[in-house]
Amino acid sequence: MGLDEDSLEYHRTDPPGKIEISTTKPTNTQRDLSLAYSPGVAAPCLEIDEDEADAYTYTAKGNLVGVVSNGSAVLGLGDIGAQASKPVMEGKGVLFKRFADIDVFDIELDEADPDKLVEAVKMMEPTFGGINLEDIKAPECFTVEERLREELDIPVFHDDQHGTAIISGAALLNAADVAGKDLEDLEITFSGAGASAIATARFYVSLGVRKENITMCDSTGIITDERAESGDINEYKQQFARDVSDGSLADAMEDADVFVGLSAGGIVSQEMVASMADNPIIFAMANPDPEIGYEEAKAARDDDVIMATGRSDYPNQVNNVLGFPFIFRGALDVRATEINEEMKVACAEALADLARQDVPDAVVKAYGDDPLQFGPDYIIPKPVDPRVLFRVAPSIAEAAMDSGAARTEIDLEAYEEELEARLGKSREMMRVVLNKAKSDPKTVALAEGENEKMIRAAYQIQEQGIALPILIGDEHEIRQTATDLGLDFDPQVADPSVGDYEGYADRLHELRARKGVTRTEAGELIERDSNYFGSVMVEQGDADALLTGLSHHYPSALRPPLQVIGTDDDVDYAAGVYMLTFKNRVIFVADATVNQDPDEDVLAEVTRQTGKLARRFNVEPRAALLSYSNFGSVNNEGTRKPRRAAAMLQDDPEIDFPVDGEMQADTAVVEDILEGTYGFSELDEPANVLVFPNLESGNIGYKLLQRLGGADAIGPMLVGMDEPVHVLQRGDEVKDIVNLAGVAVVDAQKE
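The line above is the sequence of Bifunctional malic enzyme oxidoreductase/phosphotransacetylase; the predicted structure tokens follow.
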């Protein structure tokens, strides 16, 4: 099947289309329904009648955008009408929800008259927190947006105009920097004079480009003062008429620094590119075929050609999804009355700045594992980069507050945490720990310090103020890799091959002499094995915590810390714990990595330590010791172990959280089962600490929950050690290292 056939199948599969309505409040009982509708719903109605602003408090208005179109200029399909535009508008709603958690009603209006279109949208103002105009042809789109912005008290944004302008504006900021050119000196040629081209030219002026340096061409040629005076062009094109001779696009491109294409595919030749100024910037954004192909533009010159297109299969995709979801997110959250020029500039600057930062592994993987690093082939972020939400929405909110467009003032630092929570419970939970870490950063030793991921993690850890990282490894190699990665930081390095670490060898020999390790062997382990080096460093107090395991099997990475650091004084067993986060629930799973066949003493110790870990995430533990039976329904040695462990913990006066077992997994997590069949249980709410009876079941269980249950997993977190140590999984991403560094710092703070 081709793309068209696949798309038709995708859209017609039951239920047809791409969106649905879901409820956000319980509707399970008669009381729920009486609150949701009659008679209870009268109370919020009366409150809103008293003060219309309460619609934001009692309804979904503050998170609801209307995507409005009349279908007069749909993609490259032209005027296909309102009904045929509906798949596009539904798709827009999908993007709003996916990238910024904004709900959408798509509104297709069968109306060509701009005055009637305006009146129809005005009548819907009470429904929405904002209006996104879409696929309305020029020049009517200018009139419709201008009037609605003046007459409505909610944000109105025509994405076809401003989306491309903002995203390409961000690209322009960085492209000019890479090319070593100043915005005010740029000579810019536009191919196309429709809504997006005019809005883009206007926006470039807002960024600092001089209007007199912009040459705009339509299908007839250069837009000149002579053409404007003759009435050959509409009032919007006239804004960019120049006092120059008539000419073609080829004439306009000679000696230009920047080409901006918003017209038609294949109209620019290599000769036209060759005629441009040194190190030209080419934004060929016609879709699906750009004005000139990526390879052709690059091959036309010997110097650097900085190239952007609207396509995802080439570097520097100018994709509007980098803008509108996050612009509306910030605008809605401060109840903005408009989306003004200051907010648009703030968006472009935030995107430009983000492109200069280290790129998350997940984003790199999504684009084929090719390196993504600021430069000619990476001047704007990728749409799937989750950081766009955290950078753009706060910038929009701040600009709205500073410019007077906001009706509500918000705490920007707290706002970023709220945005993270929208993307998942795991981000919300990690923010708790990372904030604790930042309040009192500790020193974290990173074994395998020559690994690129460790170096990138060290940069982020230091940049965010989470910890003071020490990379263990060859200093020259580490610093060279940091330079190659474009990381602007001076890493602290411990190089075992050049430093004076004889004391570490002596200490390792002292600890392991009766285990067969000679002094010579100890010296070799310190010099060659960063796991032993880092373990002794922490044991000696030269670092507060250790992270290792990125390129080793878990048991071999765990062995040196256990041999050198060992477990806490009152703990006999370490354990590996995963935190699994679901939409509205957090569960800690133990033991998933260390103890193969624990007895009741080990199970009890694992439960104690996991309860302590849960509290570091501000979660009050409720522990269930799991089995395949419930409270003695099966009686054998396997079921007696968790039962005895639960009894030991219940008798321990130091255990100040509820514990029960043995019980089946569904009993532990389903409230109806606990309250109904097993109302005698010590757990009055579902468990959030699940202790599995052995390593096999723990590892299987957490992976099934993660994969089939859609949970995010953080860990494994090692509990019970005398000093903070965490062993990474092979292949963990940079964000996993940063997260575990935060956990290690909080562990060290407790120490």
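Note on the example: The chain has five domains: 38-154, 162-312, 321-423, 433-565, 575-720. Residues 321-423 form a domain with the Rossmann fold fold (CATH 3.40.50.720).
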